[in-house]
Amino acid sequence: MTTNGQHRTVETKDGRTLPFGASQVGVFELVPRLGYREYWYPAIESKMVKRKPVTLKMLGDDLVFFRDTNGKVAALTDYCPHRGARLSGGFRRTPGGGPIPGKLNDEFKGYITCPYHGFVFDGSGQCVAALTEGPDSKLPPKLRARHYPTRELFGIVFVWMGETEPVPIEEDIPWYFFDDDVIVETYVRRWDMNWSLTIENSHDSHAVKIHRGNSRRLWNLNLFRKSPAYHGHMRISEEGDNYIYIVSTAEAKAPVTAYYDNLKKNWPQKTWFRFRTTRRTGGSTKKPKQFDPHRPGYTGVYRLPAWVSPSGSGDRSHLRCAVPVTENVVRMWTVTLTRKSFWPGLKRFWWKVVYHASHVYQLPQGTNEFEDMPVQSVGCLDPDRPQKIGATDVGLIFWRRRMPLKSRDAQRVWGTKKVAATAAEIKTAEEREAAEAL
Predict the structure, then answer these.
(1) Can you give the residue ranges of every domain in the chain?
(2) Alpha carbon distance 422, 427 (integer Å)
């Protein structure tokens, strides 16, 4: 077995062989490369699913989406159980994929027809007719395509990817989505990297280096903010059953520039243009009720299965959900929440202008795609190499080491013995690390 680029294992007390590296805290020692499966994930915008079926890959599975006889979005495996042909009839030339509409598969409204031999399936995945075998065929009752439960909320189709019984979707979506006063905007793009890497990136010290000088920050004057010179140590300020909050212990007090004795220089070296002390907000000077559970001093959240909240300001909150496609491709959902009461009446139109002309330009594109993605993408970062992580990586360590044991996969699929044994191994590794540190 290869772990962190090395062939290393450790024998446990109960005779099991596990990958060595708890002290190294490798990226995929506990975190699944294709994501946690026993969860609801955002799949596709509702407006993209019409009568003609469309296909997407999620967590390594090929799915096909179409409207059933009740007009609801149904999701099935994209492979016909008869001979394995794609029900979507489409072919994706890239692993990130479609959605791409097929041909000859939407002849009957509310059903999907295999374009190869004409086997027709309803929204539950049950075959109801075999067109090429005739109306008396005995095969349809025996054929059933895997069905993935779906829910449509906020203009998004969510899919349950697990093998076990779905939980109420409210357990997997941040609660403030369900506030009647909230407006939800989505921005979806393919990123060429493993899903977990972009989750880890959300709450570490990279911001003070990567996100300092992009020219796009001229648009909202954030280029002139008095940004801290360093991030300092991180600590977990709150822990729940499926989330943690991370806070920097030094960022708020860090100077604009700091002196490094080995370099005999300050860094950043040029700070004369950083004179702004507050972040601008739009719409109103009245502070709205917050739509997330952040309290003053909180900087972000990791939430299972793949939600992060890198930032939030007075009038909006910026969240991301990383949906694995393949091991090296992720479909990144960027969700922006704001309040209807903050943009009343005609100001709602102004919010749309602000969102499309400024917010998307600044955050999903400028910050995430032009600054984060080039550093983390395939070929730029090797997650399987040995890593040595430090005080600013507290959230990352928790994400790799503790969050997997909190996951529903661990509770429902992995088994209690494996979870308990793994937790014991982690505790032993942490005690060893503490002793070595002394």
Answers:
(1) 1-33+168-438, 40-160
(2) 9
